[in-house]
# Entry
Amino acid sequence: MLGALPQLHCQDRVVAVLASPAAEVRQAATQLVVKCRIREAYATLAAMLQSDPDPMVRAVTVDAVARLGRREAIPLLIEALEDPGVTQTSPVVPVRSAVQFWLPALTGKTFATKAEWERWWQEEQARRRQGVER
# Structure
């Protein structure tokens, strides 16, 4: 059934559910967006990562932006390294821990601080620009 979701033309409804007032619904919708690979939800998920009031939703959204955005998600994840949120239900995990998993998974790099990640990202962007200009 879930595999048929794109053919059912209801992706827009799933994306709309991301705005639910209920954190549990936003969390479930985020997981469904990833499972169905609804790339059109990426901008909404990016905003949720930055501003959703529920730490569990933000933690799930870290996974979603990483899986859907891949390289595009790196600056958002770097910014989320300072997220103070900790989930209140099992698994109890800081949002930051989800970010610390995904940044190395996406980049193959490991840095200890946000400043080191930011410096690397700026250097990486400069290298890419030089490669394009050649």
About this structure: Residues 114-133 form the longest helix (20 residues).
